């Protein structure tokens, strides 16, 4: 390759790089990037709780039978309170040997059967006392623990739509203000991206994910007006507008 040809190619490459950089700088000077966060909070309309129970007996068969009897009592309560089968789900079922330590020795005392289910109680807005009634009845059963009570919202699609609208409007208002401050006019949207899309909560009295002791459950079940706080969704977006 001749020296003149090599010099010419080098010059063209440098010219292309300078032109490209100038184009990017010009594009950056004629656009504005802003962000917006939209949050929508409402009262929870459903609650999920983990119900677990176990029994120890000389044989696995006897322990299993006791657990099944407890399960039947729970099912009867839920059926009486019109909780549909689709809102009950077994999450664990275990059979283990139960041991005790006596005088430094491990002694077998029998077989233990344990079952855990998740129960969902919905329509909390229209029937807030329903959850308290169910809680009363279930915790009255011997050897039953209720833990991990979580309040939630059954249908969030519309909330996410509202949060996106709020986020966009906040970003637009921000961009409009910056355009006016710089004596420019806001142009079209060049890019839009959603960076965060999440559930949020503002618990006023009880946290949304907790385990309760027996005495705490008793206090809650006596009060039909269980404070649930507010929950909802939050969306954060980034938008790039052109400037005129």
Entry summary:
With 244 residues, this protein is an alpha+beta fold.
Report how far apart the termini are: 47 Å
Tell me the overall shape. Answer: elongated
Kindly provide the radius of gyration, computed on alpha-carbon positions and rounded to a whole number of angstroms: 31 Å
SSE topology string: HEEHEEHEHEHE
Oligomer: single chain
The number of distinct helices, counting runs of at least 4 residues, comes to: 5
Beta-strand percent range: 35-45%
Count of distinct strands: 7
Main beta sheet: 4 strands, antiparallel
Approximate helicity band = 25-40%
What class, by secondary structure content? alpha+beta
Low-confidence stretches: 15-27, 202-224
Strand order of the largest sheet: 3-4-2-5
On the 0 to 100 scale, the average pLDDT is 83
Layout of helices and strands:
Blueprint (H helix, E strand, L loop, with lengths): L2 H27 L1 E12 L3 E12 L2 H21 L7 E15 L2 E18 L6 H11 L4 E9 L4 H25 L4 E17 L11 H9 L7 E14 L1
Antiparallel strand pairs: 1-7, 2-4, 2-5, 3-4, 6-7
Helix pairs in contact: 3-5
What features would you describe in this structure?
This protein is an alpha+beta fold. Helix content is 38%, strand content 40%. It contains five helices and seven strands, in the order H-E-E-H-E-E-H-E-H-E-H-E. The chain has helices at 3-29, 60-80, 129-139, 157-181, 214-222; strands at 31-42, 46-57, 88-102, 105-122, 144-152, 186-202, 230-243. Strands 3-4-2-5 form a four-stranded antiparallel β-sheet, with helices on one face. A three-stranded antiparallel β-sheet has the order 1-7-6. Helix 3 runs antiparallel to helix 5. The longest helix is centred in the first third of the chain and has 27 residues, at 3-29. The two termini are 47 Å apart.
């Amino acid at each position: 390759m001749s020296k003149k040809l090599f010099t010419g190619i080098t010059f063209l490459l440098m010219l292309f790089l300078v032109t490209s950089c100038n184009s990017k700088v010009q594009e950056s000077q004629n656009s504005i990037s802003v962000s917006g966060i939209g949050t929508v909070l409402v009262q929870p309309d459903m609650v999920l709780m983990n119900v677990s129970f176990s029994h120890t007996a000389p044989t696995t068969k006897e322990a299993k039978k006791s657990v099944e009897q407890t399960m039947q009592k729970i099912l009867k309560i839920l059926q009486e309170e019109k909780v549909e089968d689709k809102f009950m789900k077994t999450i664990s079922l275990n059979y283990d040997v139960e041991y005790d330590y006596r005088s430094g020795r491990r002694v077998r005392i029998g077989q233990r059967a344990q079952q855990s289910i998740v129960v969902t109680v919905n329509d909390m807005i229209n029937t807030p006392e329903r959850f308290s009634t169910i809680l009363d009845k279930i915790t009255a059963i011997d050897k039953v623990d209720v833990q991990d009570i979580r309040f939630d919202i059954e249908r969030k699609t519309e909330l996410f739509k509202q949060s996106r609208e709020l986020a966009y409007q906040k970003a637009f208002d921000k961009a409009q203000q910056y355009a006016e401050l710089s004596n420019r006019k806001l142009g079209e949207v060049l890019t839009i991206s959603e960076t965060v899309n999440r559930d949020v909560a503002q618990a006023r009295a009880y946290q949304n994910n907790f385990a309760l002791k027996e005495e705490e459950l008793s206090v809650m079940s006596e009060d039909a007006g269980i404070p649930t706080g507010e929950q909802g969704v939050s969306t954060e977006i980034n938008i790039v507008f052109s400037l005129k």
